[in-house]
Every structure is written in structure tokens, then in C-alpha cells.
Design goal:
Layout (H helix, E strand, L loop, with lengths): L3 H14 L5 E6 L12 H8 L8 E3 L2 E5 L5 E5 L5 E5 L9 E7 L4 E5 L6 E5 L23 H10 L4 H5 L10 H11 L12 H20 L41 E5 L2 E5 L14
Helix pairs in contact: 1-6, 3-6, 5-6
Bound molecules: zinc ion.
């Protein structure tokens, strides 16, 4: 799955290249990417053609483009989705799914090989699409509530990594960024939220932001060769990973080999010395 910094990089690209432009024509080249638009591809095109894009916004890993009709184009990149801005007449990408011809020159293209992502029109969704209103803000959002986050973590008895991945507590923190932030904060992912001090959670939040900021500076991660940002440029972040994917390599702080364990059908990576496993509390 795309991680939040990648989606934010795409949002910034859309803001720079698509906001303020009118959509002159819409071609839906494959029905699957608009499957969540239940009224169908023709209706999708009818609601977006002739509209001007007023912004490029994001909640978690969802992007939306508010339109001058009050509706919004809501999008999710899924595993392999890309938003490309191309000059008119550039050759079609092999997996081009939806083409927006912009007024003047240029095209916004939704390209998606695996098609887990998609686009739909959210009626009246310009301010915040109802479909995604339940998703918590992410730590990069200027309106993120730090105190509420700290309290929410400390109320939960589950492991702190699981809490970081809970989209109702905080959105946009995926497996890679969770492992990296926990390594920075020297916390084991199985530490229960209820047993963390306020300062632990505050430090962890700062580290989540630090990891995301580093990724944003570098244009997102590039674990997936399919990841391309709005200008078609690959992101590079993998060289600065400290824990994720580093099994057997020495921890950069203490030299102990990084360990990998199974976690929710995926993996967790951590330093067993810097991030000690919590002791099991025995019932007495
Ligand atoms: Zn270490």
C-alpha cells in the first residue's frame, strides 16, 4: 500500500499542476477504477466535465479535488495508482485508466496497474467527502490534536504499533513508518498503550513526524517500483531506513542485529536491545 508521505507528495504535485484548471473532457478507459462511483463511468464523466478544480486535499491516504460544483473527485491510489500530469498528446501509459483533459494544455492521468485504487465523485464533498469523514487526521495535518492522540494511546491496552496502525486513532501511519518511528523512539511495538508515559507518547509522535518529514523531503518511499509521483519521478527513501527491512543488519545505535517477527500478516523490525520486549505481567 502507498504510505502517507507518498500520497502527500502526489497531493503537492496536484496542487502545483492541476488546481485552478478546468476539466474540458474526461475519458474513463476502464470501468474498474470508477467502480465506487455507483452511477457508472458516464455519470462520473458528466459530473466532472466542465468543472474547475479548486484544491487538492488529503485525509489519510485519500485525496480529493474540490470542484466548483461543490462536489469532489475522491481518489485512492491503492497499491499501484499514480497521478501523472502529462502534456497533451504524450503516448498513453500501458495502464492508463482515466484521462482528464485540462483546459489550455495538459492532461491529468490516473494510471493503475493492479487497480486496487480508484476514483469517484463525492456529491457535495468539496469541504470533506462524507465517505472519509470517519478517518482520523494524520500527524502531518495542521489540525491534528496532539493531546487527544496522547490520551487515546494511553487509553488502549493493545500494543503501541497496533494503535499506530488504527486509522480511527491516527491515519496514514503504515507498517514502514510505524517501525521506523518506534525504532527512533526506542519503544517495542508490543508495549501496551496503557503502560506508556505521556512523555513516551509525545516523543513517539515527534518521531512519527520526523520519519514522515524525512520521507517527504525525499519524495516518498520507493519499495514499490511502481511508485511514481505526479511528475513521473520515483521517490527515494529506502537508503535512510533504520529498522524496516533491515533484518540481520547492525542497529545504527548499538550494533545489535535488527530482528524481524511476524505481525498481522506482515513483519515488524526492531532492535532487541534499544527496543526491549515488554515483560509479560503474570497473574498472581
Ligand atoms: Zn539498537
Amino acid at each position: 500500500m502507498r504510505e502517507l508521505p507518498e500520497v502527500e507528495v502526489v497531493r503537492r504535485g496536484l496542487e502545483a499542476h492541476v488546481v485552478g484548471r478546468r476539466i474540458d473532457r474526461v475519458d474513463v478507459l476502464h470501468p474498474r477504477p470508477v467502480r465506487r462511483h455507483l452511477a457508472g463511468a458516464l455519470d462520473f464523466a458528466a459530473l466532472t466535465t466542465g468543472r474547475t478544480v479548486l484544491g487538492a486535499r488529503r485525509r489519510g491516504k485519500y485525496l480529493w479535488l474540490p470542484l466548483d460544483s461543490g462536489d469532489a473527485v475522491l481518489g485512492h491510489l491503492g497499491m499501484s495508482g499514480q497521478m501523472l500530469v502529462q502534456p497533451a498528446g504524450a503516448p498513453d501509459e500501458r495502464h492508463l485508466r482515466v484521462r482528464f483533459t485540462l483546459h489550455g494544455a495538459g492532461e491529468l492521468r490516473f494510471v493503475d496497474q493492479r487497480m486496487f485504487g480508484g476514483l469517484s465523485v463525492s456529491p457535495g464533498g468539496a469541504e470533506l467527502p462524507a465517505e472519509i469523514a470517519h478517518i482520523a487526521r494524520d500527524p502531518v495535518d495542521p489540525l491534528f490534536d496532539d493531546d487527544a492522540f496522547v490520551a487515546a494511546v494511553r487509553r488502549r491496552a493493545s500494543g503501541v504499533k497496533r494503535i499506530l496502525l488504527d486509522q480511527t486513532v491516527v491515519s496514514g501511519v503504515g507498517n514502514i513508518y510505524a517501525d521506523e518511528a518506534l525504532w527512533r523512539a526506542r519503544l517495542h511495538g508490543e508495549r501496551p498503550g496503557t503502560r506508556l508515559r505521556r512523555t513516551d507518547v509525545q516523543r513517539l509522535l515527534a518521531d512519527v513526524r520526523g520519519v514522515m518529514a524525512a520521507a517527504l523531503d525525499q519524495g516518498g518511499t520507493s519499495f514499490d517500483a511502481l511508485y511514481v509521483n505526479v511528475n513521473g519521478e520515483s521517490g527515494y527513501f529506502d537508503r535512510s531506513l533504520h529498522a524496516y527491512g533491515q533484518e540481520g543488519r547492525p542497529c545504527e545505535r548499538c550494533g545489535t542485529p535488527i530482528v524481524r517477527v511476524a505481525f498481522m500478516n506482515r513483519s515488524s523490525y526492531f532492535c532487541p536491545v534499544c527496543q526491549p520486549q515488554p515483560r509479560v505481567r503474570r497473574a498472581s
